[in-house]
Amino acid sequence: MNTPIGHVEQTITDILKRNVSFNVIEQTPIGKTEYLRKIIIATDQFPIVSATVRFDSKIIPQYILTELLRKKEGIGTILQKHHIIAHRRSIVITISSDGKKITRNYEIMQNSSVWFQISEEIRLDLLYACQNG
């Protein structure tokens, strides 16, 4: 799933041909200016993607931070809405030995500045089960 920033939710919707929900399940400060955001992308009751995002409020423009703190939309959606050209830099991608999940760590960068550090787990077993169910 090497999709552009903000397209994971849409890609899963296209694969499953059913509604997919995006939810920020937690967003808490972890320092003076740093935050930890946990999200789930799910269909029905099945969490297909879970991710943890770290970001520093002193690096991100205030108008982006304001939207992040509302906890309504994903990072990619917010960046696209504001026409921010950002790039993803993969750190590591692994597939579990049983083939049931992919784990990837990457950064979202704007110019040469790291705005977000993301650790994501994609449950292929649940994706396949929902696709075939």
Can you put this structure into words, describing what you see?
The model has no long low-confidence stretch (mean pLDDT 86). Strands 1-2-3-6-5-4 form a six-stranded antiparallel beta sheet. It has helices spanning 8-16, 62-70, 75-81, 124-132; strands spanning 21-29, 34-43, 46-56, 87-95, 101-110, 113-123. The chain has a single domain, classed as Chorismate lyase-like (Chorismate lyase), CATH 3.40.1410.10. It is globular. With 133 residues, the protein is α+β, with helices and mostly antiparallel strands.
Secondary structure blueprint with pairings:
Layout: H1 8-16, E1 21-29, E2 34-43, E3 46-56, H2 62-70, H3 75-81, E4 87-95, E5 101-110, E6 113-123, H4 124-132
Quick take:
This protein has one domain: 3-Layer(aba) Sandwich (Chorismate lyase).
List keywords for this structure.
133 residues; alpha+beta; Chorismate lyase
Q: What name goes with the CATH superfamily?
A: Chorismate lyase-like
What's the rounded overall pLDDT mean?
Answer: 86
Radius of gyration: 15 Å
Number of strands: 6
Strand order of the largest sheet: 1-2-3-6-5-4
Structural class: alpha+beta
Distance between the termini: 21 Å
